[in-house]
Amino acid sequence: MNGLELAIATAPDGSLLREITALLDDVGRDGGHPALSEHKRIELRRHRDAGAPARAAHTFVGVVARAASRPGLAGYAQVDGDPRAREYAVEMAVAPNTGDGVSIADALLGASVREVAARGGGLLRLWAAAAAATDDERALAAGFELERELVQMRCALPLPRAPDEPPIHTRAFRPGVDEEAWLTTNNRAFASHPEQGRWDLATLLEREREPWFDPEGLRLLEAEGRLAGSCWTKIHDSADPPLGEIYVIGVDPDFQGRGWGRALTRAGLDWLAARGLALGMLYVDAANQPAVSMYRSMGFVEDHVDRAYVTTIEP
Length: 315
Description:
Aminopeptidase; 8 helices; 12 strands
């Protein structure tokens, strides 16, 4: 794209952070979903909030694009990851109505790849929210291959209850008390998951500091004297219409096969409906066909698909 300027920011100042935030807000409103994933937004916030705890051995690179034909940022890419493991992830956002969003995204991806190469290379994962054919074409042209598909599914609330579907008893999460038990159960339930199974206390406490966190919305199921599973909900007040999300749901392997995954999903949706939400939402890996089938049987339908592409970048 003619007149496009790219700049690298590893420590963006307040003015640039405000520009990035404004761009992300515009892209989110235009697309109907957040422009960056939650962990990327948290990482960006670390650079905005001077009091946020630093992360050791963590790479953060922002790539900003400006076009001579428009004010503000034309696009933004964020690369972060662990240089020790040589594993990074990138997400991109292009301003609405730029006239040549494809070229801007191509330029952002190229700059991101060069930044990873300059840091010694490694595995680079590219995430595209509500992925379209242009995202597939861009990724393949840059040497990436499709790795995962994450399906967002939605349902109307309240969800009708079948006569043979008895409720289960759950209780609210207790901050300062239940962290260790929740982490143990969560990491056992997601032992093979590339992101969710690696949570530690710092990660959990960081989520507890998020403005949306409500311990009443993290429902715990206990059995045989221990935590058997949980359903963590999240309310997206700024969405239009507001969404009630099943944020994290897991059952300890020792208790799987009892139908508690479905029952916990129901418990979370019931809690959201009781707060006045009329629309429920969750994400599920497309490869997890048993879970996809279960959610469809409960009344969920597919809204859109996020895709992850992966490649190895040489130094």
